[in-house]
C-alpha cells in the first residue's frame, strides 16, 4: 500500500482513539459513528453492566463491532509517513540524522552533537528509546485523569438512572392521581344524579298530598251547604203553616 500525503494540519489527535488517546489500532465504528480501537471498546464493556458508546453513552444490545477499514488505512498511512519523516529529521547544526536524545537538555541530537563541547558529560538515550519512555510517562500522567474520568462517567450513569427512576415514579404517581380523580368525578356525578332523582320523587308525592287534601275540604263543605239549604226549606214550611192557621 502506497503512503498517503497528509496535510500539515493533520496531527496524532485527529487519528487518536478517545479511550487510549493513541493512534487507532484495529479501529471499529459503532452505529453512532464514533470509532475506537477494538480492544479499547471491549475493555470498556467488560467494566460496565450496560454496553454503551464511551463518548455519547448510546446503548447497544450486542457485541458486534464492525471494522472501520477507511480509518485503519488512514492510520497506517499516517504512521508510515510519520516514521519516515522522523527518520529523515536532520540536525539543524550538522545536517546529521537525529539518533540520540539528550536527557540533560531534553532535545534530540545527532552523533556530532553528542561529541561536542555543548553536550560534554551529558546523558543520552537512543531517540526511539527516549520516545518510548516519554510516551510511557505521558500515559502514567494520564492514568489518574482517566480514572477520574471513569469515576465521573459512573457517577453520571448513576445520576441518569436516578433521574430516570424519578421520572418513572412521577409518571406512575400522575396516572394514579388522574385515576383517583376520575373515580371521584364519577362518584360525584352518580351522587348528584341520585340526589336529583330523590328530590324529584319527593316533589311528586307532595303534589299528590296537596291534591287529596283539597278534595276532602270540598267534601266537608258540601254537607254544610246542604244543611243550610235544608234549614231554609224547613223555615219556609214553618212560615206557611203559621199563615194558614
TrEMBL record:
Keywords: Metal-binding, Zinc, Zinc-finger. The lineage of its organism: Eukaryota, Metazoa, Chordata, Craniata, Vertebrata. InterPro entries: TRIM/RBCC, Znf_B-box, Znf_RING, Znf_RING/FYVE/PHD, Znf_RING_CS. PANTHER family: E3 UBIQUITIN-PROTEIN LIGASE TRIM. This is Uncharacterized protein. It comes from the Eukaryota. It holds the Pfam family zf-C3HC4_4. Residues 17-57 form the RING-type domain. SMART domains: BBOX, RING. It comes from Labrus bergylta. One of its GO terms (molecular function) is zinc ion binding. Residues 233-245 have a biased composition (Basic and acidic residues). Residues 86-127 form the B box-type domain. Residues 200-245 are annotated as: Disordered. SUPFAM superfamilies: B-box zinc-binding domain, RING/U-box.
Amino acid at each position: 500500500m502506497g503512503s498517503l500525503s497528509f496535510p500539515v494540519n493533520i496531527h496524532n489527535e485527529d487519528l487518536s482513539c478517545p479511550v487510549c488517546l493513541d493512534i487507532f489500532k484495529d479501529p471499529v465504528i459503532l452505529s453512532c459513528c464514533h470509532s475506537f480501537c477494538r480492544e479499547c471498546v471491549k475493555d470498556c464493556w467488560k467494566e460496565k453492566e450496560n454496553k454503551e458508546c464511551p463518548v455519547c453513552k448510546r446503548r447497544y444490545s450486542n457485541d458486534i463491532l464492525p471494522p472501520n477499514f477507511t480509518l485503519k488505512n488512514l492510520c497506517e498511512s499516517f504512521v508510515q509517513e510519520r516514521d519516515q519523516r522522523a527518520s529523515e529529521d536532520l540536525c539543524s547544526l550538522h545536517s546529521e540524522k537525529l539518533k540520540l536524545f539528550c536527557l540533560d537538555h531534553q532535545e534530540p541530537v545527532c552523533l556530532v552533537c553528542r561529541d561536542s563541547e555543548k553536550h560534554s558529560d551529558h546523558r543520552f538515550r537512543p531517540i526511539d528509546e527516549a520516545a518510548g519512555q516519554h510516551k510511557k510517562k505521558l500515559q502514567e500522567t494520564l492514568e489518574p485523569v482517566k480514572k477520574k474520568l471513569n469515576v465521573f462517567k459512573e457517577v453520571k450513569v448513576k445520576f441518569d438512572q436516578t433521574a430516570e427512576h424519578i421520572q418513572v415514579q412521577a409518571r406512575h404517581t400522575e396516572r394514579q392521581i388522574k385515576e383517583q380523580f376520575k373515580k371521584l368525578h364519577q362518584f360525584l356525578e352518580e351522587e348528584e344524579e341520585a340526589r336529583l332523582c330523590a328530590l324529584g320523587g319527593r316533589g311528586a308525592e307532595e303534589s299528590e298530598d296537596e291534591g287529596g287534601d283539597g278534595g276532602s275540604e270540598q267534601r266537608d263543605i258540601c254537607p254544610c251547604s246542604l244543611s243550610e239549604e235544608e234549614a231554609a226549606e224547613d223555615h219556609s214550611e214553618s212560615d206557611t203553616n203559621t199563615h194558614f192557621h
